[in-house]
Amino acid sequence: FFNLFVIPGFSFHIAYAASPSITSISPISGIIGGSLTISGTALTNATSVKFGSTAATINSNSATSINVTIPSGSGTQAVTVTTAGGTSNSKSFTYLTPSITSISPTSGIIGSTVTISGLRLSSASSVKFGSTEAMILSNSATTITATVPTGTSTVSVTVTTPNGTSNAVNFTYLTPSITSVSPTSGIIGSTVGSGKSLSMLAL
Fold first, then answer.
1. Helix, strand or coil for residue 111?
2. Model pTM?
């Protein structure tokens, strides 16, 4: 906007930059490294876009739109734009964490393979069975395969990515189970059983 100053024999304008204003952001939730578009007015020559206190990388900028890369963060943060005209109002953005929808199988033995299905599982840095790290065999946005680590009983399985730690699903460790012994009586040194190793048998 402009202010008009008049001095006898002279008149001049002093221009002030308009204050930036955000009308919307899209999307309103997402993951670190994703793209976000800010719509509003007086956004030209933005010097900073912040998610909370963390600055985002500005990819493009016009008077009515700014595109940025979502920076590191968690929870719900206030998005603001700063220009020569000041700092805008804020809009809320929520960081999405990884989500596990299922694990298959839901029970098994140490050393077996499980498949974890869900959302936003890319770049997993950790899969834990309780507090024990599992070896990750493969990893995509929707699926992780891992080797069941040492453990007992029923434990919570979680996935950690740069976007945080997922919800937990249960996995139960199976113990050896004897169904029968044959013969049921005999002498010292005789042989019983079918010859299968119970260390590899989980029923």
1. coil
2. 0.77
Per-residue confidence in pLDDT tens, the chain, 203 aa: 445 555 666 655 555 679 999 999 999 999 999 999 999 999 999 999 999 999 999 999 999 999 999 999 999 999 999 999 999 999 999 999 999 999 999 999 999 999 999 999 999 999 999 999 999 999 999 999 999 999 999 999 999 999 999 999 999 999 888 888 888 888 898 887 654 445 444 44
How would you classify the pairing of strands 154-161 and 143-147?
unpaired
CA distance 69 to 81: 14
The 3-state DSSP class for residue 199 equals helix
Backbone angles phi, psi at 61, to 5 degrees: -155, 125
Sequence-distant (6+) residues with CB within 8 A of 141 are: 119, 120, 121, 122
Q: DSSP string of 142-188?
A: SEEEEE--S--SEEEEEEEETTEE---EEEEEPPP-----SSSS--T
Return the SS3 of 54.
Answer: strand
The residues facing 112 across adjacent strands are: none
Residue 10, amino acid: F
